[in-house]
Specification:
It catalyses: Mo-molybdopterin + L-cysteine + AH2 = thio-Mo-molybdopterin + L-alanine + A + H2O. With 822 residues, this protein is an alpha+beta fold. The protein is built from 23 helices and 39 strands.
């Protein structure tokens, strides 16, 4: 049961949450990724910068003195001072870690190659720690990795206190104060035991003899975000951290804390930059390092404005957070976040499907019974009623739909992920060979998860956030009515006639499909349906806005349909805006008037506005300006369409400072293909020139949706998939097996299935959000969020110059020969 006296009180939470009003209805549950900065912090930083003049500390003594004062304040925050620890400012935790290994003296005597120390790291460490092994190898250190359970067992084995070795090497062990994967807190009271050699027996399995002094590198980045690191109680030799994890601001600034008695072992730093030497000859190999220890390591000019902001960071934190536990704000944060995570754990622990199956698979190393062993983090995966896993990408899309920010994947903790998901090294390599990459959206391979879902709490979170999150899970994944899982089979693979023939689909004659067998004889297969026609053509002139539906025919251009996704709306930071951020975009409905040569924009309650389809060079120079933005990692050259339409769009979407950008005619963005394939030019569409939707498949899907709150008719549901080519046929799902398509006189190549996100859960008429149809798509296709097929244009069948594609044209399809049994 949550102890309410040990968390932040409601009145105090009102004051705190007012600092984060910018969140609106967003529920932010990724504190382990980055703490949010409070509004008053930015205000106080701006005020300080506006009323003071801060110069380069290499120039200005006052600025340098101020930085030294802040250095002391940060040490005080960790309950220590400059007499015990030195603070070196870095660009973040990763640089702090790297600085240690680059400077660490594994051999006490450079000529004694036989007595080099070891670098030992926990397999569950963050990638930034594991990567240190490459530098340790270069320094001839023995590299040893230790498993989670082995580490916990070894550090609990009391070591005999030893004196420092006069000979031999120095060994360094690196481990996290708190797991970045699941919030487990590793023991800190074992540091002295490690330094006394408790790891020696374990290392004898790898080395013949242990004869070295031990030093401890503590990765405290995740721990110090919500916990008190008291350096009077525990004293690691080196501590790495990032300030944005604690305060939310500034990014790009961290620190390495070095115990004074361990400074001498960081003697092998090679590079020196500005401000780190007392003397230097550029024409002779001669330089003298700074006497002051931290000055030897802070190469070049410090990020002095960011460092100065730390004073406001500390002041703001101490001002807005009450000191409930032990009169300490970090203890208060620790208890507050712990009990929020424990409350979530208890709610999810009891969550079951209607058949009694547990809905959650936890990845824990503690049971939330002891705050000294667990932070405010919970990591898990969701399981369906039939026991299959729900992919974290599917979950991420649903969370985004409900404005809930979470982290999914492995969180740069490959070792922890591998251990909790019970994957062997071979499994990990097989996943890579199957196409999975760190940070991608491949969430399931052969039904097995490649990552997990992580929820982490900050001091600004409340029990309402917990409830909102649990309600989202119940609505989307647990309380849905049971529906029978159906295996999607290839109708043609199951046809006996086809099973016995080898070869490729290579001809269509009179709407009949033919295959070549081993004797090069054409084998006739009955038609897939009596008729397939192109029912509707849609273009989306402005990316992520409403459709313009074509009644008769439309011209095919070099990048797709003419005027399809030729414009986009960008925010004041130049980033493209989509319906994921603003659902009102679907209610901006463009019309293309070819006679008047204008695009007319319509929005409910607003007077329409028009912009010309053709601009002369003089008009562009007068009214527009060249600009750059990005679409799906591609840099786009565009032309700003001017202030009038920008103001109109900003008012319609209720977002200030939006701009309408048109793709430049000389922008050569292209479809990513293999080197030996012809590249197709792309407009501002995500991945392909055209998207085809089979209305029979939409009808099939609608019949699978059992949510009584979902009331879309067939046409409205079809609109959600935002296809360019809407076809009608009798059979569903067959388009997934097509290799190419001929529509009228025009041939298209299938480029694959269309991956889906939460945008299909936006009603394209009203902008309202729903859980369906994404939930049912995931269930019916085993977690694979695919619907519709991508096409690229090949050319006309009869090599004519006709570039018009007409509605109600007949369609002929060629099957994907890879699916024919051989």
């Amino acid at each position: 049961m949550t102890v309410l006296s040990q968390i932040i009180k409601p009145d105090d939470m009102i004051k705190i949450t007012s600092e984060f009003a910018r969140l609106g209805d967003r529920c932010y549950l990724d504190n382990a990724g980055a703490t949010l900065y409070p509004k008053s912090l930015i205000t106080s930083i701006n005020e300080d910068l506006l009323k003071n003049v801060y110069m380069n500390p290499h120039t200005d003594k006052n600025t340098k003195d101020y930085i030294e004062q802040i250095r002391c304040l940060i040490l005080k925050h960790f309950n220590t001072d400059p007499s015990t620890y030195t603070l070196i400012f870095t660009s973040g935790t990763t640089q702090a870690l790297k600085l240690v290994i680059e400077s660490f003296q594994f051999m006490k005597n450079e000529d004694d190659d036989l007595n080099c120390g070891s670098f030992v790291y926990l397999e569950d460490n963050h990638t930034s720690v594991v990567g240190l092994r490459e530098l340790a190898v270069d320094k001839d250190a023995e590299v040893v990795h230790i498993a989670h359970e082995d580490f916990l067992n070894v550090i609990n084995t009391k070591a005999k206190q030893t004196s420092k070795y006069t000979n031999g090497g120095n060994s360094l062990v690196a481990y996290p104060a708190q797991s970045n994967f699941n919030g487990f807190k590793y023991p800190l009271n074992c540091i002295e035991n490690i330094k006394n050699g408790c790891l020696n027996n374990h290392l004898k399995k790898h080395l013949c003899e242990i004869n070295s002094d031990w030093y401890v590198l503590l990765d405290a980045a995740a721990y110090v975000a919500t916990s008190k690191l008291d350096l009077t109680k525990v004293q690691p030799d080196f501590v790495s951290l990032s300030f944005y994890k604690i305060f939310g601001f500034p990014t790009g600034l961290g620190a390495l804390l070095v115990k004074k008695s361990s400074e001498n072992v960081l003697s092998q730093k090679r590079y020196f930059g500005g401000g780190t030497v007392d003397a230097l000859l550029s024409n002779e190999h001669y330089h003298i390092k700074r006497e002051i220890f931290h000055e030897r390591f802070e190469d070049g000019s410090l990020s002095f404005l960011s460092i100065i902001s730390l004073k406001q960071c500390l002041d703001t934190m101490y001002r807005i957070i009450p000191r409930i536990i032990h009169d300490d704000i970090m203890e208060t944060i620790s208890y507050h976040t712990f009990y929020l995570a424990k409350d979530l754990y208890c709610q999810l622990l009891d969550l079951r499907h209607r058949n009694g199956t547990k809905a959650i698979k936890f990845y824990l190393d503690s049971d939330f019974s002891d705050i000294t062993k667990q932070g405010g983090v919970l990591t898990f995966n969701l399981v369906r009623e039939d026991g299959t896993y729900i992919g974290f990408s599917e979950f991420q899309h649903m969370a985004d739909l409900f404005n809930i920010s979470v982290r999914t994947g492995c969180f740069c903790n490959s070792g922890s992920c591998q251990r909790h998901l019970h994957m062997s090294n071979k499994d990990m390599k097989d996943m890579y060979n199957a196409g999975h990459r760190c940070g991608d959206e491949v969430d399931l391979i052969n039904g097995k998860p490649t990552g997990a879902i992580r929820i982490s709490f900050g001091y600004y979170n409340t029990f309402e956030d917990v409830d909102k999150f649990v309600n989202m899970i119940c609505r989307c994944f647990v309380n849905a009515k049971a529906r029978k899982q159906k295996r999607i089979i290839n109708h043609f693979v199951e046809t006996p006639k086809i099973k016995h023939y080898n070869g490729n689909v290579n001809k269509i004659i009179n709407e009949q499909i033919y295959f070549k067998n081993v004797d090069d004889v054409l084998i006739n297969i009955p038609p897939m349906s009596t008729k397939i026609i192109l029912k509707e053509i849609c273009i989306f002139p402005i990316k992520s806005c409403g459709a313009f539906k074509i009644l008769s025919g439309w011209n095919i251009g070099p990048k797709g349909f003419e005027y399809d996704r030729e414009w986009m709306i960008v925010k004041d930071n130049g980033v493209c805006l989509t319906q994921k951020q603003n659902t009102r975009m679907c209610m901006i409905r463009p019309q293309i008037d070819l006679k008047l040569k204008v695009m007319i924009l319509n929005f409910p309650g607003k007077t329409p506005i028009s912009i010309p389809l053709e601009n002369s060079i003089n008009e562009v120079q007068k009214n527009g300006s060249l600009c750059h933005s990005k679409v799906c990692t591609d840099m786009i050259k565009g032309i700003d369409c001017g202030d009038e339409v920008a103001d109109w769009i900003s008012e319609a979407l209720e977002v200030s400072f939006l701009r309408l950008i048109r793709q430049s005619s000389n922008d050569n963005r292209s479809l990513k293909k293999k080197k030996d394939e012809d590249k197709k030019l792309l407009s501002l569409s995500n991945q392909a020139q055209y998207l085809l939707i089979n209305k029979a498949t939409v009808k099939w899907l609608s019949e699978k949706i059992k949510d009584p709150l979902f009331t879309d008719d067939l046409n409205h549901l079809t609109d959600r998939f935002r296809g360019n080519l809407i076809i009608e046929m009798e059979q569903e799902l067959l388009e997934r097996e097509w290799h190419s398509v001929i529509i009228g006189n025009h041939e298209f190549k299938v480029e694959g299935q269309c991956p889906r996100c939460q945008m299909v859960c936006i009603d394209q008429q009203t902008g309202e959000k729903t859980v369906e149809p994404l939930r049912t798509i995931a269930e019916q296709f085993g977690g694979k969020l695919r619907f519709g097929i991508y096409l690229s244009y090949v050319g006309t069948v009869n090599k004519s110059d006709d570039r018009t594609l007409k509605t109600y044209s007949p369609i002929k399809a060629i099957l994907n020969d890879d699916n024919i049994s051989r």
